[in-house]
Amino acid sequence: MGSEKECTGAADTAALVLRATLGPMLVAHGWNKVRGPGGIEGTTGWFRALGLKPAGLQARLAAATELAAGAGLTLGAATPLPAAAAVGLMAVAARTDHRGKGFFVFRGGWEYTGVVAGAAVAAAALGSGRWSLDALAGREQGGARRALAAAGLGAFGAIALLAGSYRPERDTEEEGEASEPGTTG
């Protein structure tokens, strides 16, 4: 077994690698919602089709949350909070865009959202490490409570957002099957 110093150094390195992978990826996704092909208008149309209302507000909220959470994770700033935001983002995506499509992301499934949410919770559990704003500020880092808080806060945020904003259109085929021919439902 390695010494405590070696274990701490390994954890610091792992935290940095995790933050440097997850954070910029979230920033890129947020930036793409604003400046990618179609811009915020395209994202608004996509969110409208998913049933998120008001779509323009939801598109901007998602982009801003991805940008802020990604920056916070990258810098190691109050890590459980941006981790919770990532969990919430991924839970909403899994429920709205990936639901019913199975596991594999190449089929539209929830694989990607599950991995990102799990990595965010792991980042909260691990803490930001020595090379972070949290360390510079002398904040306590990591642990099971922080991981559970990130998972719980993210799930709560997703549930609240979905309860207030998710209004998908009913599938017309399902409506037709539910009523008899010649009736109005």
What does this structure look like?
The structure is a single chain. By secondary structure, this protein is an all-alpha fold. It is built from eight helices and no strands. The protein has helices at 4-35, 39-50, 55-75, 80-96, 111-126, 133-136, 144-165, 172-178. Mean pLDDT is 91; it is low at 172-185.
Outline the fold blueprint.
Layout (H helix, E strand, L loop, with lengths): L3 H32 L3 H12 L4 H21 L4 H17 L14 H16 L6 H4 L7 H22 L6 H7 L7
Helix pairs in contact: 1-2, 1-3, 1-5, 2-3, 3-4, 4-5, 4-7, 5-7
Described by the principal axes of the CA atoms, the overall outline is: elongated
Helix content: over 70%
Give the biggest sheet.
Answer: none
Please report the number of helical segments.
Answer: 8
Strand content: under 5%
Rounded average pLDDT = 91
Q: Structural class, please? A: mainly alpha
Order of helices and strands: HHHHHHHH
Question: For the CA atoms, what is the radius of gyration?
Answer: 19 Å
Contiguous uncertain segments of 5+ residues: 172-185
Tell how many strands the DSSP assignment holds: 0
Distance between the termini: 69 Å
